[in-house]
Amino acid sequence: MQGPMMDNIFKKYLEGKSVRNIDFKVFEPSFVPNKMPHRESEIGILVDNFGKILMGGMPKNVLIFGKSGTGKTAVMKYIGRELEDASKNRVNIRSIFVNCQIKDNSYSIFETMGNSIEGEKIPFTGWSFDRLYAAVKKNIDMYNGNIILVLDEIDRFVKKNGDDILYQVLLLDSELEKSRITLVGITNDLKFMDYLDSRVKSRLNEEKIVFPPYTSEQIYDILIDRVNIAGINDFVSEGALRLISSLASQENGDARKAIEMLKASIQLAISSGENKVEEAHVFSAKNRMEYDAIMETIKTLPVQTKALLLGILLLRESGTIQFTTGEVFEAYRNVANGANLPVLTPRRISDMLSDLDSLGLISANVTSLGRYGRTKMIEINVSFTDAKKVILEDENFRGLKATPTMKQLRFNIDH
Ligand SMILES: Nc1ncnc2c1ncn2[C@@H]1O[C@H](COP(=O)(O)OP(=O)(O)OP(=O)(O)O)[C@@H](O)[C@H]1O
Ligand SMILES: [Mg+2]
Question: Which residues line ligand 1 (CB under 6 A)?
Fold first, then answer.
């Protein structure tokens, strides 16, 4: 670089790849690629099943099962898109995708179905179920075609509301004259089948497809494809991709985690002005993601558990590394009093300590105190300054902000 630009504080952003417009949408979980490596056989089964519609036949209902990040949602969206495309000018096919974590009641699933096709407009709430059912039935029959109803994360719905919805959809299908509904359930918990009535179970289970976790090599192929789609293959080193693949395969073969890690590594490399993503960026991205996940866990703890953790953090801040349960109880009591929260019993606090332990935020080990019996020794596993900052963002602790250390907290309460 020549002239005055030499010392410009934005210099690093002018060099390397950072000036290129990378399309980060390609790395979003909602992006559905045109090719899905290592899902050929699963896609093949689905193509054979739904291809029957194109020949005037009847597909089976399908249950897709597999761990997180194994491509279940993406494959089904891909199939729906391809099928709607292939059916143009032949038959009416509409694939309706419902995320049951968001639409978590029967009304809203029926409303989505009814409003996804032409016909009577159904309000978001307010109708009796009978009226809703009749309107959806009329709309679907007028459509004169095939509805593929994909119920994603169906286990969550069934655990919360039971299996009535499945029964109602199967009943609706049997009462249709000119249209058909095929059900596709997606889940990562096969045990949810235990919650199903046997009639519903056998109908839903006509075709079961299991998506296995990806191996390290398979994830590598998926990542290479993504990098090519984004047009940045010269910007990401092979070593970085291999490392992400191997880390993600250790974490249950989850392609979502791998793609997230890739995106975070690219962003890190760009922000530090480098012209290639290397292993070091991957390690930093991984640490960053783990750190973010921990902070998110702390942010979403119930307020009393936050009070307990804050007590422990303040103890740690005062210099001690390990504390007894007695010390922790006292610290918690001080925080609860200071924040005007009801003080819970030692038994409840003990349960909350176990919760914090299983979340990995603290370690609680039972230690013998000789003739004084046994106690748990508590240690913190997270950055205490950052954790404290996150907890103090909760408005329940607003009054404590001016009392950053245990000593001051005690002082404020005692005097
Ligand atoms: N074979 C594949 N080829 C390309 N991309 C893939 C493949 N499998 C998964 N992905 C990508 O990985 C991410 C996670 O996939 P997806 O959301 O389908 O997982 P899932 O099985 O539905 O997980 P969950 O149970 O957590 O919902 C998505 O971004 C998806 O595009
Ligand atoms: Mg999914």
Answer: 29, 31, 33, 36-39, 66, 68-74, 188, 222, 255-256, 259
Per-residue model confidence (pLDDT) at position 404: 47
* Whether residue 166 is found in the same domain as residue 271: no
Characterize 155-172 residue by residue with b for buried, 16 or more Cβ atoms within 10 angstroms of its Cβ, and e for exposed: bbbbeeeebebbbbbbeb
The 10s digit of each residue's pLDDT in 281-301 is 999 999 999 999 999 999 999
Give the span between the Cα atoms of 196 and 145, in whole angstroms. 28
CA of 194 to the centre of ligand 2 (A): 21
91 and 149: one domain? Answer: yes
pLDDT tens-digit profile of 319-340? Answer: 888 888 889 999 999 999 889 8
- Write out residues in the chain with pLDDT < 50, as ranges: 1, 17-19, 404, 411-415
Question: For position 412, what pLDDT does the model report?
Answer: 46
Q: Are residues 207 and 261 in the same domain?
A: no
pLDDT at 184: 97
> Ligand 1: which atom is nearest the Cα of residue 27?
29
The residues whose Cβ lies within 5 A of ligand 2, an ion, are 73
Q: Which atom of ligand 1 is nearest to the CA of 29?
A: 29
Domain carrying residue 281: 215-295
Which residue's C-alpha comes closest to atom 3 of ligand 1? 36
Supply the pLDDT for residue 12: 64
Q: What is the number of the ligand closest to the CA of 155?
A: 1
Same domain, 225 and 321: no
